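Checklist before submission:
- one chain only
- standard amino acids only
- sequence pasted in full

Submission:
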Amino acid sequence: MQFTVDLQPEEYRRAMLWHQFASTPGKRMNGWAAWAILVAAPLTVVVLLAFAPDGLSFWFWPVAILALLYSAYSTLAVRYQIGRQAARLLQTNPALARTHYHLYAAGVQLTGGEEGDEAASLFLPWKEIERVAEFRESFLFFVTDESILIVPKRTLTDETAFRRLLQKAGKTRR
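Returned file contents:
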């Protein structure tokens, strides 16, 4: 089976956000905690100021400000950085604009660039792909914890055959 992935910045952004914040239980818990702190810190300050202004110690303010800054950075700033990186994706690395995937029983052959250009090629045996995750709009191939391949479903001509090939390779986990 072969197909060409012309990765769009929005697809890259969604995959990277998922990878950054939800690909493992620890990352999910960290993301939930950061959102909770981002909401709870200002709410706690308002409640304490309204109901117990004299009960606040000197150390409350630095701790509240640090918690708020951490949660703002880990939820908002990182998401913004990933969005900017996705927007510049095709400009900085045009080889990602068109990557040719050839799936075999032994593994995945990736070739970057246009047909006539000198293309970089990489072969990944199935045993080097740790897992494959399926989402509503794409498949993610995890080569390592830090390295993923993004396969948008819109690029597949036969999604059923693609799933069968993944099943034969032993990579069908959600």
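Reviewer check: The first helix runs from residue 9 to 21.
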